[in-house]
Structures are given as structure tokens and as C-alpha cells.
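Ex. 9. Protein: Nitrogenase iron-molybdenum cofactor biosynthesis protein NifE.
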Amino acid sequence: MSTENVVIFKERKDQIHRKGKEPFEISCNKESLAGAVSQRACVFCGSRVVLYPIADALHLVHGPIGCAAYTWDIRGALSSGPTLHRLSFSTDLQEKDVIFGGEAKLYRALVELIDRHSPKAAFVYSTCIVGIIGDDLESVCKRVSQEKGIPVIPVQSEGFKGNKREGYHAACSAMFRLIGTGDTTGISPLSVNILGDFNLAGEIWIIRDYFKRMGIETVANITGDGRVEEIRRAHGAALNVVQCSGATMDLAKMMKDAYGIPFQRVSYFGVEDMAESLYTVARFFSGKDPEIMGRTRELVKEELSVLYPQLQKYREALEGKKAAIYVGGAFKAFSLVKAFRILGMKVVLVGSQTGTEEDYQELHEITDDGTIIVDDSNPLELSSFLKEKEVDVFVGGVKERPIAYKLGVGFCDHNHERKEPLEGFVGMLNFAKEVYISAVSPVWRFVPRKTGRKYH
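Predicted C-alpha cells for Nitrogenase iron-molybdenum cofactor biosynthesis protein NifE:
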């Protein structure tokens, strides 16, 4: 099946939309096409990336060693204290364990690791093989929790159960078992929990500082630079602010139902969304503190007075260049479209792994005619679209980087492995610098699409 001059699988046609030709309609939130080498991760990986940044917890993967190895240190999630999360532990199930069961091995592993590392809690991840052989994680975790006096929580994350989004739900369900078990004494009436930020390159520290300058207390980081005791008392906060809506929105809804805590969707990427996120929180608390909006305006004014003059030189060099976006959550893509506009660039391709129909409808409304909107894409499609649109810079994650470089396209890592913060006002400046360096590098003069040589 062909969309324009790009050959795609006919089963994928309804997950690709070109704005301007037909009324908006897209299929999403469905299982990946078998054999298409989807860019998505599995349920287990989805749960692992959400819980992994809780720094003082033990993270034990119950399954073959490959599952733990694949997700070891999977995010650049920094910690201001303990670094237990950066160690990867596995029960390393073998053939005999598959035949006779792995519960005894899991019990021994938990006891040994808790004695050795003294974690504040332990998360035990179920993998595909565990779901098949039927090990009872719940009973083993309950037994160890009683013996060791810490929460030991099973994460029902068998990879075959669905896609990455199911993993997010499994992680939220596991964390919810911690919430409500801690003391909320002394929490300010102007307080928030930061949900869905993984503290890549220390970004959550930037956001916490903004809130502090506004006069707001941050009760818990969920999950970047997270601490078990903070999560246990998170139900004492007045508001949940949800950054990565796909990853932690389920938890926000659980907390609203159980504890009546309202939530707001926010984004810390780009100038417009960062400022609006701060104003959204300030408006929520303006009834309790009439001066909070004034402090917030002063904060934004101060940051923009430094940022805008520096952005102009990058805009002059990037004006008219074309960008493609393929990220995990669609909510992040909204901010990136706006950020590229500030830089004078045109977004010609945008997609995500886990977007909903509402997410794609919003992308359709804020993008230009001719923009390709794609759900759960694969390397074949992404490569074809990048060549067709003659993209100058591609924003994605670790799995998209090889696609860009093989095609001679500049790349910006906006997901797991980045070392520079891209959130906040300073993050917008870092983003502009990275896009500039990638897009105008002289090396692209020698790639096949510039020289006329064939790809091999």
C-alpha cells in the first residue's frame, strides 16, 4: 500500500495520516503489527522505565538474565543521594527453574539482596516466562515483606500482556500500594507532587527550583530522583502535576479517586508550555495565596529576559529548516512542535509510540498542512518519511538514532540517554544549541542524499 510515494504495509494505513488531504482520522492504542519491528517496547520495559528512577528501592527482575540486561541503567535518571537503582538484579531463571518453578529462587534472591543493600522497598518485576509458568509473586513478596519489615511489591509486567502502555499501568498500580502508608504531618497547603518526570540530566531539580521560587513545596518526585518515604506520604500533597501523561496519568487518577487530590497536565518543554505550566499551578493556588501569581510572573519574566536574546542567533541559522519528531508520549510532541516554531523550523513529521486519539487530534490541530502524523511507526516507515520530506533534524530516542545517522540526518536525543537538560527555560536554550549543532554540521554535505550517491 502506498501513501504518496512511500511504500507502507497495508495493515498500517489507518495509523498514518497526512494533514490536509482528508478529514482527520487515525487508529491508535492497538497492538503492533506482527513482523513490522515496531519501535515500541514491551510491557515489562514500560514498567521498568517508570519505576527505575526510585533511587533507594531495590529493583529485582524475576526472569531470564536478558530482560535485566536489556533494561539495565535504561534512563539517564540522576539521583541526589542513593544510587541503588543503577544496579540491575535478576533471578536469572534457567531451564530447570522453568520446569520446576522459580519461587524458591526468588525468595532466596530477595532475602540476600535486602540483607546486603538495606533498601527502603523492593519492586519485583514479572517477565514473560514467569507469567507462563505461573510463579506466585504476590505470596513470595508478602512473605519477604513480613520477614524483613519493608514493602516488597510485585509488578505484574509480563511482556506478552500488551504494549508499553500496559507497563505504565502496572508501574502505577505498584506505586499506588506505597501511597497512603506514610505520615503527612507538616506538609504545606501549597504543595505538589511532580509526576511523570524521570530526572534525565537533572531536569526535576530545575522544576523543583521553579516551584520553590513560587512558594510551593514539592512533596514527592514520582519517579525521577524518587524516594520511597516521599512516595508513601504523597497523598498529603494538594495537587499532582503530571508531565509524562502516558506514564503516570493512571496514578494521578487513582490518587484522585482514593484521596481526592486533583491533577493538572503540564509540560516543561519549550517556552510557551513551560510558562503556562507554572501559571496553571499558580492559578490553582491563587485562592490560598493571592501573591503567588505575581511571583510566578516575575519568575517567567526573569527567565525569558535571559533566554530570548540567546535564542535569536540560533533562529537566524535554523529558519526554514525541516524537523521530524517521533517520541514515546504524544504530550511531549505538542511542546516540541511549538519549540521548533520558536526556532523558525517547520515540523513535517510527528508521531509517538503510545498516543491516544485525542492526542493525535490535538497534533492535527497545531501542525501545518502536509504534516505526516503517525502512530506506532517502524524503521521502514520512518526512513521513507525522512527521505521523502528531506528532513534536516530528527528528534527521537535511542532506537531512532541509527535511522537518522544512516540517512545522513541530524539527530537530537529527547528520551533516555541525554546528558543535557531539555526541560525548563534553560532546557529550551540547550535544545536550540543541540538542534543547531546537529542541523548545520558540515558533515551532512558528504552523505548520499546530498551527493547523489546511492544508499547501501
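Check your answer against this statement. The chain has a mean pLDDT of 92.
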